[in-house]
Amino acid sequence: MRILFVHNNFPGQYARIVRHLKGRRDIDMLSGSLASNKQPALIKGVGYTPHREARKDIHPALRYTETSVIRGQAVYTALMPIKAKGWNPDIILAHSGFGDGIFLKDLWPQAKYMPYFEWYYHTYGSDSSFLDGEAPKNPDTELKIRMKNTAILHDLAAMDWGQCPTEFQKNQFPPQFQDRISVLHDGVDTDYFSPDAEAAFSVGSLVFRKGDPVITYIARGMEPYRGFPQFMEAVAILQKIRPEVHVVIIGEDRVAYGAKRPDGKTYKEWALENLPLDENRLHFLGRQPLRALRDALRISAAHVYLTVPFVLSWSMMEAMSAGALIIGSDTDPVREIITDGENGLLVPFFEPETLAERLADVLTDQARYAPLRERARALMLERYDMKNLTRQYFNLIERVVKGPMGAS
Question: Domain 2-187+386-402: which topology?
Fold first, then answer.
């Protein structure tokens, strides 16, 4: 079987399945990714480079669409020589949303096409309206949000089958497509992200161990989409209640999802300037290697994960696998995995006072919450272990290649 993976930052979500299949003599894999991608190459690949950016004078609602078309054209052009040499995939797996795969069924009409779907945009009732309410938006904003789905709709129309990591994310897509999308998570490396009672985590000259009053927060960026302002407000309150607490924040001082502050400041700068924070016990570590993330989670008294109704982060599930106690936002993507009081704790997204109180309770008696940690780990082993899910993933690939598929 020949499999083509297309992802602008390959391997991305395909890392686990590629490692699972690598070395099999009956599987021939090829990747396509941006030529600027610096991720380690897992398999042979082809780089592509868009020949230009979207025009600045194009209709604002079409800028994202033009960017996607330019990206898709670059992928098509880069892969044409591969087809000319006689390499034809049985199935194409492409990360949907950026246009990378929208022309690949034109290049290889006989190949099966299974995009990886993360998100379908809505103006109301979803991430776009969660932070600023359901009040009517500017019509230009409505147009932009709707048109962001253009490349995704092309993938939905062209697909032989689709994949989505969670039920919540699948439910964002138009109902007429949902019965041809399988919910299959990428999986968690439960062997690597495992509890260790003897673990230690160093921050400068400080060494933290299990049982120490350490709160962790991990996100790609420091932004409202992941509740960073609310978290920092909770930290300011918590430091007054429990002045011995240390807070470890891993992530970059940028906005990965959503809009930047209109005043040009980062949300970290805003927090440090406007909140009464004890910076001696507040540790911003920036981007860290995977080992550091794991060790921080292993010693964490509580790991805070807040998100608007949006794509669920790997970090929350990795934290559960590592034995951390999750205090998460009471929002749909988190509720799919965590039941309050059963395998974690949930708090209202917009109530930093409640979050601070929960954190203080946990720090008062960490042992009381040991059963929640154990059940969180058990759930990851039972339903999200990558060894099981990669086998399911390849079974799905084989079924799609053989086709036709029935309802999911």
Answer: Rossmann fold (3.40.50)
Residues 117 and 152 sit within 8 Å (Cβ to Cβ):
yes
Specify whether the CB–CB gap between 343 and 379 falls below 8 A: yes
Question: Which residues have CB under 8 Å from 93's CB, separation 6+?
Answer: 3, 4, 5, 6, 14, 114, 115, 116, 397
Q: Structurally, what CATH architecture does the domain formed by 200-383 represent?
A: 3-Layer(aba) Sandwich (3.40)
Q: How confident is the model at residue 407 (pLDDT cuts 50, 70, 90)?
A: low
Q: What is the dihedral of CA 130, 132, 138, 140, to 10 degrees?
A: -50
pLDDT of residue 9: 96
Percent of the chain with pLDDT over 70: 99
Q: Around Cβ 196, how many Cβ atoms within 10 Å?
A: 13
What's the mean pLDDT in 291-300? Answer: 98
Average pLDDT over residues 152-161: 98
The CA distance from 68 to 72, in Å, is 6
Q: How many CB atoms lie within 10 A of CB 378?
A: 12
Q: What are the start and end residues of each CATH 3.40.50.2000 domain in the chain?
A: 2-187+386-402, 200-383
State the angle between helix axes of 150-158 and 63-84 in degrees (0 to 180), rounded to the nearest 10: 40
Residue type, 5: F
Contact criterion met (CB below 8 Å) for 75 and 106:
no
Q: At what angle do helices 139-147 and 63-84 cross, to 10 degrees?
A: 10
Report the 10 Å Cβ neighbour count for 277: 17
Q: What is the pLDDT of residue 408?
A: 57
